[in-house]
Amino acid sequence: MDVVIVESPAKAKTINKYLGPGYQVLASYGHVRDLPSKDGSVRPDEDFEMSWDVDARAKKRLADIAAAVKSADRLILATDPDREGEAISWHVLQVLQAKKVLRDKPVSRVVFNAITKQAVQDAMKNPRAIDVPLVDAYLARRALDYLVGFTLSPVLWRKLPGARSAGRVQSVALRLVCDREAEIERFKSQEYWSIAAHLRTPRKEAMVARLVEIDGRKLGRLAIGEEGEAKRVTARLEAATFKVASVESKPQKRHPQPPFTTSTLQQEAQRKLGFDASRTMQIAQRLYEGVDIRGEPVGLITYMRTDGVDIAPEALTATRRVIEGEYGARYLPSAPRRYHAKAKNAQEAHEAIRPTELSRLPADVERYLDRDQARLYELIWKRMVASQMESAEMERTTVDIEARDPGGAAMLRATGTVIRFDGFLTLYQEGRDDEDDEEGGRLPKIEAGEPLARDRIEAAQHFTEPPPRYTEASLIKKMEELGIGRPSTYAQTMAVLRERDYVRLDRKRLVPEDKGRLVTSFLEAFFRRYVEYDFTAALEEQLDRISAGELSWKEVLRDFWRDFQSAVEETRELRVSDVLEALNELLGEHIFPPREDGADPRTCPACAAGRLSLKLGKFGAFVGCSNYPECRFTRQLGEPSGDAAGEAGAAGANGDVVLGNDPETGLPVLLKSGRFGPYVQLGEEEKPKRASLPKGWAREEMDLEKALRLLSLPREIGLHPETGKPIVAGIGRYGPFVEHAGTYANLEGVDEVFTVGANRAVSLLAEKQSRGGRNRPAAAALKELGEHPDGGPVTVRSGRYGPYVNHGKVNATLPKAMDPAAVTLDQALALLAEREEKGGGGRKTAARKAPARKPAAAKKAAGSRKTVAKAGASPGTSKSKPKSKAKA
Hints:
It is globular, with a radius of gyration of 33 Å. A hairpin with a 6-residue loop joins strand 26 (677-682) and strand 27 (689-692). The protein folds into 6 domains: 2-130, 3-Layer(aba) Sandwich (Rossmann fold); 158-186 and 471-578, Orthogonal Bundle (Topoisomerase I, domain 2), CATH 1.10.460.10; 191-255 and 393-463, Topoisomerase I, domain 3; 262-390, Topoisomerase I, domain 4, CATH 1.10.290; 715-771, no CATH class; 781-837, no CATH class. By secondary structure, the protein is an alpha+beta fold. The protein contains 25 helices and 35 strands. The strands form 10 sheets. The chain has a 6-stranded antiparallel barrel. Strands 23-24-25-26-27 form a 5-stranded antiparallel beta sheet. It has a 4-stranded parallel beta sheet with strand order 2-1-7-8, sandwiched between helices. Helix 3 packs across helix 5 (132-159), helix 8 packs across helix 12 and helix 15 packs across helix 18.
């Protein structure tokens, strides 16, 4: 019996069926070892020796693998065909050697780019050894990421409270987002006017031409900059006669794009399907590992982590066969198209992402897939087929029109594009991050010398716009162009930036939070080299050369560590005042925006004598007055100041906004900002009534009416008809609710808490009671994920405390960041296995465990967090405190 090791149970199940008897295929469930999250896991003083810990979830699996290998004839490592896959095989081999179960058994490594029967069987015929340079490249990357993170992050914690972490690739990606935001803030909009003539040919066909030249002066886009000039030019054109000066038509061809790489797939999936990078990779992983089609597991796409655009000859032949059969010989080029990677430092030797069987049309597999899987498969299939189709043939026509008036002459131009043959466009057209009008419509038939009649002259005012914020798609594209990161890192980088609260998504655009801008400015001020684009790209190139066996991985680490350690040592003596002054300088326009009255934006608006500056508190940075404690003016970052604050409402002495007075008490109603967000407060007495703004309520949209509604909570709706006890409506940590005698029922939205009546509340409470109690029925399954390796279905369900995965009597809560609709079977199995190892079952109460021992630095940090939590009571309603948004 030969033992085969792969990463996931889904992959194991598929390959087991392909190999048949004589093979036992086991899953490692991803990486089995990692560097412990503590100081000393990578030791530069010992020539970068590394300590590895076996993941707690992996111990049982490794024990099962070791037991199987002990009685096996041969070990075959068949993990993914990339650096991470090579590393997993190496780790498994290291553990088995340490357990001394291999003895003299032969060990081989096989790789396949697609999980199909033919690909797997071919791989088994061509075994090789572990690729040592590829493992060295993994070790170098892992060590670098560890050294940067565990060396730089403590510097951030000490010098910039509130910062979460820094990372080798993460921090450079964040700098891109912050640099774009600074560029937008510096942008000065400029007015300009365009002038168009609506004309008719002798055959009464309409056309539009734009002014491009007047009195021999060529007009750029911004040439007409104010309304007066636009009116003067318009008046001249209204008195002019128009004649066609020339007509020029040029044939053009548009060629298809290459099949998908990891980054282009992530970009297109966001543009066309709305998936973020992580979601795209989760779905692609499932398509790669295999789905059940007519009772058989089938891998539908090739490996999805690649920056190669090459295609296997047999796949090209199959694609051309599909094109001819589905679209006809006219759409088939005379020879297959060959593509070369354009990405900087592209080094992967894998094929592009494509369907494993091109004759498997999207319509053929749609009924075996969920909606998102079907949509992504269709996108991949269309891109692959279109990449081998004939080019689109266009005709671009340019018509120059002469306009003569008593004062001189002008030239106008009309352009249009006609598609003579649609070619690949009949199937696929690449999406765009920002739509533009690069091509005009179709023009009427027209000849030089023909007169044109004027319908009207139209002048339109425009303003130049700043560059757009990055989307995930455009940020990944930019990172790829600069050579920052690699296919396997993009999705994780995007996720980390959001999880650390360094950026937020606003209409799919990445907006840097103030915390992210502070971190970026700090790194630019004191570690500039390590967030430079060229430096990061050059380091990536060195890591690629390690993969190719051209460089020693430890030599690269030595060179990096020598300079990096010196830079860190220099910051140890930094005073906080030095850090703050550097940040004041770098973020000046953002923190202290210009005032409309022209006054110094750093003059304190409360005392007029002090100077505003960044201050660091236990909870992070804020703006304060230099005259503290005489002047206690403070302002949260991102709040309006000076004139801007005056527009929102009357500014109080501490930078609060007075929304008005309560008509019942006469007390002022204040809009304030606390550690956990904005809130409203009634009066300034010792224990004022407060209410946090609920989710979805923006600070800038608050007024007196809304504030008084919040402060009226909790409100009594009426008495329950059965018990005579009051029913109350309010907003708590889990959102809006109604409550009666200790029973709570959720409301659909915040607005309903102010309008819900007694009948509706009694009905909701009755429904909640019917579902409550120890014997309440199990939650219905939201999604069926598949069969557990031990038998029985694995499902996603919705519970009282959020979504969870279930198998038999074992439930495992989904992490907050995990989308229930996107959970894969592999992820569910890993969560369930972890829950079982902790002794978790159905509805048992988890046993209390003594806290794990912490290193001294961690204890000190934990103590600091406790002090912070104790000191930082958040404003809330009179009955409850709002849920903290901070993450420990």
